[in-house]
Please model this.
Amino acid sequence: MHKTWQTITLIGLILITVGVLVFGCAQKAPTPPTSATIPEGELDPAVWGKVYPDHYASYLKQKEQTKGNSKYGGSVPESHLKEAPIQVKLFAGYPFSEDYNEERGHVWALEDVTGTQRVGPKTISSCWNCKSPNVKPLVDKMGDSFWATPFADLKDQIKHPIACANCHDAKTMALTITSYPLLDALKTRGIDPSKFSRQEMRTMVCAQCHVEYFFKPDNKKVTFPWKYGLKMDDAEKLYEEINFKDWDHKESQAPMLKAQHPDYELFSTGVHAANGVACADCHMPYVKQGQTKISSHHLQSPLNHISQSCQTCHKQSESYLKDQVIGTQDSVFKTKVALETALSEAIDAITAASKNSAAKADMMNQARSLHRKAQWRWDYISAENSMGWHSPKEALRVLGEGIDLARQAQLKANLAIGAAAGGAAGADAGKTPGSGTAVDAAGPGATPKQP
Ligand code: HEC
Ligand code: HEC
Ligand code: HEC
Ligand code: HEC
Model:
């Protein structure tokens, strides 16, 4: 019996060693198929493609526009506003209320940024930041004057959509960080990017763009709100500290925050990040391309290649894994819709109360502050690209807090007029179940004042 186990262990060890060797070799950059080299400073992916034709062919597949196996993602630029018209009201007074589509492949980045109705005469070059490898050399040339330069002024110099040079060093093909905003943000957090492991780099190249950011008020430079950490609350703390707002809500007059797409931040709070899994593990798995196996450069929903993306680590069936993802997304989606309803009713209550000249100003300001906080939580999860799947527990926590805050905003607005009139409305609103246990988000003065 003892011998048998030794033999099994030995065979096991041999198999693992062979596996590591074979897999390890497969992971190394293959020798370029031609003797061509990439000229220094080359940004055109077609030229890189002469040296790495399989990678270029895979990259070009990002042109495909299909829903694939997705329920909430996919590569069809559908309108979020048509799917959920309530968002027009939530974004009232801000360009996102006019045009807001689902994202698609990297090769479309320039068409999409120049085609959106959100771009106008006031748009600045900060909006080129995540769209092209031409940005870094332009910042090198222009310094921080790049960011506030009118968007249209640099149009002729932005030639390629997101490409090889955004992620790779042309000489060594090693992964590299070319985004100044990310380098700045890492510095703020005391992190030295040269110390990243290869596995960490397989996430950090994506964190160049798939993050929350704002334009620094003085020079409009793209800045990540990471001073206090990577969580939703940390970004909010910074925005409160510097009194930041993206716009004033047209109906409630609340000073609002627009979330961008905190994919990396939300992912960082989840179980896969905790286990060292990288973005590229799921979004760029090894696939057969031409005669070889390469890291897929067709970045898309992992639901379109579950066997390569998930079954390398999970033994469950493809259908189980797909249902797991979509089932989790369904829960997040339902909670998100509940928050949209709560926000809409809060906006109505604040708008109605603000028409009443007797409304208590301090309570109205508290109601607006609660609207801001609630909608920030909604947008943080809504604008994130995975419908919460990158970190479902965190997504549900954030949305749950949002529902509470939105209902507090509604209650506060009702109290502001109820209290002013000395009438029954305030007393009734004060009795709303749950109001007494609400989190103390409005700070001092959050306790409803009874008339
Ligand atoms: C453990 C696997 C896994 C990892 C790791 C992972 N993702 Fe995802 N990602 C998914 C799944 C699953 C979806 C949902 C796809 C869908 O809805 O079709 C998704 C969705 C997305 C989408 C939207 C895709 C679409 O079709 O609309 C983007 C963008 C994205 N992830 C970026 C990232 C980034 C950036 C990272 C690293 C910070 C990352 N992901 C890490 C599994 C992963
Ligand atoms: C969004 C970032 C990104 C872009 C853009 C990108 N790559 Fe990659 N590339 C990666 C990642 C991540 C890997 C995996 C590296 C690793 O595992 O160390 C990789 C790996 C490679 C490798 C090594 C072999 C392999 O398959 O793992 C080559 C060669 C390569 N890419 C070529 C290209 C070419 C050519 C382009 C442009 C047509 C390109 N890449 C665009 C992120 C990118
Ligand atoms: C230079 C900025 C940049 C980098 C680097 C980058 N992305 Fe993106 N990514 C974008 C933008 C912008 C879009 C949306 C493009 C559009 O809709 O026009 C996008 C879209 C996507 C999509 C959606 C594709 C679809 O078909 O819906 C996925 C998935 C994705 N990125 C994953 C990644 C991963 C994983 C990495 C790192 C390996 C990465 N990205 C690196 C900017 C970037
Ligand atoms: C590189 C390995 C790796 C890949 C690729 C990977 N996972 Fe995981 N996954 C893990 C690890 C490790 C855990 C944590 C297991 C634990 O804590 O017991 C995990 C946990 C999970 C969980 C449990 C989450 C929880 O909250 O406990 C689910 C569901 C899951 N993965 C689904 C997927 C799906 C779907 C994909 C593909 C889109 C995927 N994983 C890709 C390694 C991976």
Observations:
- Residues 318-354 form the longest helix (37 residues).
